[in-house]
């Protein structure tokens, strides 16, 4: 059985795996694809119900469904080493506001700011009745409370160091 599992993981590791938000504690993405076997233990353990399986069956976060409390229950539930306490510090996702934001389009909205416990969002007034949400990336925990509350679905997540936008799974 162990041999079969190892072989399956070996072939799964060959697949490209998208670098999208995974549960906190997810190991580096290339290793994650070889360790996460899609068992669903973390999904069942998450009290917020925000862990889903992506198209390839790997555990991913749906931060539009709710906020992560960083409780660590998913890490405790993971038996394969795909989620570890040691890798927690590498979880570096931050919120990024997209062009569909109501406030950017002159429709009054401050919902994301209201839901941010880290006070990481402020607004800069712009011409035409618009206001631009600005994320303080040092303050943003990547919890997803803003994304879950956003009426326009206009908040995605990116790794802090890359500036590269990645849609949530
Ligand atoms: S840390 Fe807690 S709330 Fe966040 S994904 Fe894991 S189990 Fe869910
Ligand atoms: S909650 Fe969404 S639509 Fe409203 S200001 Fe924030 S990003 Fe824009
Ligand atoms: S992800 Fe969390 S901490 Fe970051 S801006 Fe949104 S609500 Fe605030």
Question: Helix and strand string, N-terminal first?
Answer: HHHEEHEHEEHEE
Count of separate structural domains: 2
- Say which molecules are bound, naming each kind only once: iron/sulfur cluster
Q: Which fold name fills CATH's third level, the topology of the largest domain?
A: Alpha-Beta Plaits
- What structural class should be given to the helix and strand makeup? alpha+beta
Q: Which regions are unreliable across 5 or more consecutive residues at pLDDT < 50? A: 1-7, 163-169
Strand order of the largest sheet: 3-6-7
Distance between the termini: 31 Å
* Number of continuous helical runs: 6
Number of strands: 7
Oligomer: single chain
CATH architecture of the largest domain: 2-Layer Sandwich
The amount of beta strand, in percent, is 15-25%
Helix content: 10-25%
User: Quick check: average pLDDT?
Assistant: 90
Any idea of the CATH class of the largest domain? Alpha Beta
Compute the gyration radius: what is it?
A: 17 Å
Principal-axis shape: elongated
Task: Please describe the biggest sheet, giving its number of strands, its sense, and whether it closes into a barrel.
Answer: 3 strands, antiparallel
Describe the protein's topology:
Blueprint: H1 2-14, H2 29-35, H3 41-45, E1 51-53, E2 59-61, H4 73-77, E3 93-97, H5 111-115, E4 121-126, E5 130-135, H6 145-149, E6 155-159, E7 165-166
Antiparallel strand pairs: 1-2, 3-6, 4-5, 6-7
This protein binds iron/sulfur cluster (3 copies).
One iron/sulfur cluster binds next to helix 4.
């Amino acid at each position: 059985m162990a041999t079969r599992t190892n072989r399956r993981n070996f072939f799964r590791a060959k697949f490209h795996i998208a670098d999208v938000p995974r549960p906190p504690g997810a190991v580096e993405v290339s290793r994650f694809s070889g360790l996460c076997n899609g068992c669903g233990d973390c999904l069942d353990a998450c009290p917020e119900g925000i862990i889903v399986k992506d198209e390839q069956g790997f555990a991913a976060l749906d931060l539009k469904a709710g906020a992560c409390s960083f409780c660590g229950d998913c890490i405790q539930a993971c038996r394969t080493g795909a989620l570890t306490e040691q890798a927690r510090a590498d979880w570096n996702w931050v919120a990024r506001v997209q062009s569909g934001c109501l406030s950017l389009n002159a429709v009054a909205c401050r919902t994301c700011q209201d839901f941010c416990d880290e006070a990481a969002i402020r607004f800069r007034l712009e011409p035409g009745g618009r206001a631009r949400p600005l994320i303080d990336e040092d303050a943003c925990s990547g919890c997803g409370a803003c994304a879950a509350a956003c009426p326009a679905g206009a908040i995605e997540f990116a790794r802090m160091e890359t500036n590269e936008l990645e849609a949530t799974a």
